Amino acid sequence: MSERYLSAQIQRVLATIELMAGREIEGAEPGKLAAELGCSPADMTRVLANLEHAGWAERLTKNQQRWRLNKKPVQVSNTVAHNYATALNSLRIERDNYSLLR
Hints:
The chain has about 100 residues and is mainly alpha-helical. The chain is built from four helices and two strands. Helix content is about 60%, strand content about 5%. Strands 1-2 form a two-stranded antiparallel ribbon. α1 (about 10-20) packs across α3 (about 40-55) and α2 packs across α3 (about 40-55).
């Protein structure tokens, strides 16, 4: 696909999600996320506000200055895993239905 269709803002959001993964307990500071991504603190504030609005990120209860991924990405991942497991099970049933005659 042509790079002309890429959006710096969308790429920044996706990179932020990847950076936040694994920091669910201690959270991440917006300033550090911005530094890691090489963007401005204002850009990171915008990214986190949009992620929060979409249910993908939240502030830590104990420290409102730190952020973590919310349950939405886990739910998406679990849905994909469930669908693959269901499809695999269906394929196994089909394979068993077409097994060799004995």
